[in-house]
Design a protein that fits this description.
By secondary structure, this protein is mainly alpha-helical. It contains 21 helices and no strands. Among the domains are: 2-140, Serine Threonine Protein Phosphatase 5, Tetratricopeptide repeat, CATH 1.25.40.10; 160-207, no CATH class; 245-309, no CATH class.
């Protein structure tokens, strides 16, 4: 911000030098002012301040002389690092009736930057607002404005402005900067806008799929009001797929849920991944891990035998659906998906159709049919966490397709 302020002040010097017929300034005022400007050009800030103080002490100055003195005082104070003095002087210069309009805009920019550097964020935001009202378009001053809103505690205002900027970037086909999205997420968080925070974290994980962002969005799903615990296995599936499952307990919980649901092939795959990652099969719980591994293998053998014999005989929609899922897990995607689709046609056997859609979409993903998976995930609705998980799967598969 100091660099921005200095650049604006140099621009003001250039504007003053370019004026062809400025109003008359008496020599006793003009001489020390010119010396101050020359000192500024030479980056001698203290010398510039001393010269402008000489001009300030001259009595009975005209409005234009007072404007020039105040303006150069602001420039010199800014260069010397006295942001509070600089901010007040630059604002006074901008408010002067003698200020040329082309200089007023630059003065407002300089005042906004100086107030920001002085940590007077309310005044900085006010100066930036006036700058835009006078036709200013510098993106750096917009940054000053948004940062001032945030640091001044106007989190809702900061979120509104940042959300507008993000929308503009996205409409232009650009990825919003990560830092911009982080600030927007924090602004929503500070203003207790949980919906806005969740939306922004989903944007972060979409554009910048880092581990911490994935953990955050998944945490948001399971802790939101109304989350259905029956979706815990769907959360685990996504965690494993995006590579954020790390602890032994996470692998074990997932495998046990898969066994309870009747999917021993899925449980076996999870346990094998845990062993491959070096998380299972070691430490004081190694024997427990081995028992679960053996149980999954035993159930899988029984499951394969049952499926080879035609499954469970007469089947309701739910049984047909789950057996189809098992066929998909075992590599027979064509048969398995056909059974799942047939079971879904009526939907009569499902208390929670959106949960079934979530599982069907996941089955498409397991079968390598990610386009169909995305299409199905997009149909998932509800407020119990299923739709939120489906959105995250769409983000995941859109990044890998």
């Amino acid at each position: 911000m100091r660099a921005l302020l200095f650049a604006v002040c140099i621009a003001l010097i250039s504007i003053a030098s370019a004026q062809q017929k400025p109003p008359t300034v008496r020599p006793e005022v003009g001489k020390p002012l010119q010396a101050a400007i020359e000192a500024l050009k030479a980056k001698r800030a203290k010398d510039a301040l001393a010269r402008v103080r000489e001009a300030q002490a001259i009595p009975d100055k005209t409005p234009y002389e007072s404007y020039l003195v105040t303006r150069v005082l602001g420039q010199a104070a800014a260069a010397a690092g006295d942001n509070a003095t600089a901010a007040t002087a630059l604002e006074n210069a901008a408010n002067s009736s003698a200020a040329p309009e082309n200089e007023r805009v630059q003065l407002l920019a300089a005042a906004a930057s100086a107030y920001y550097s002085a940590k007077d964020y309310s005044k900085a935001a006010g100066m930036a607002t006036r700058y835009f009202q006078h036709g200013g378009t510098d993106k750096a001053i917009r940054t000053v404005y948004v940062q001032s809103l945030y640091l001044g505690g106007n989190y809702a205002g900061a979120a509104r402005e940042l959300a507008s900027e993000v929308e503009t970037e996205e409409r232009a086909g650009k990825n919003p900067p990560e830092e911009q999205l982080q600030l927007l997420a924090n602004a929503y968080l500070q203003s207790k806008d949980t919906a806005g925070y969740a939306r922004t974290m989903e944007k972060l994980v979409s554009y910048y799929p880092k581990r911490d962002y994935w953990l955050n969005v998944l945490h948001n799903v399971v802790t939101r009001s109304g989350f259905n615990e029956r979706l815990a296995i769907d959360v685990a599936r996504l965690k494993l797929d995006v590579g954020v499952m790390k602890s032994a307990d996470e692998y074990l919980d997932y495998a046990q849920m898969a066994l309870i649901e009747g999917f021993p092939q899925e449980a076996t795959r999870v346990v094998d991944k845990g062993y491959a990652a070096g998380v299972l099969g070691t430490g004081p719980e190694a024997a427990r891990h081995k028992r679960l591994k053996d149980l999954a293998a035993k159930n899988l053998a029984e499951d394969k035998k049952a499926l080879a014999g035609g499954g469970s005989g007469a089947k309701d929609d739910k049984t047909l659906f789950n057996e189809g899922f098992n066929y998909v897990l075992l590599g027979n995607a064509e048969k398995g998906l056909g059974m799942m689709q047939q079971a879904m046609k009526t939907g009569a056997g499902f208390r929670r159709p959106d949960h079934a859609k979530l599982q069907l979409a996941y089955a498409y993903h397991v079968a390598g049919q990610n386009e169909k998976a995305v299409q199905t995930f997009k149909t998932v609705q509800g407020t119990d966490g299923a739709a939120a998980l489906a959105r995250l799967w769409v983000i995941r598969l859109s990044r890998t397709s």
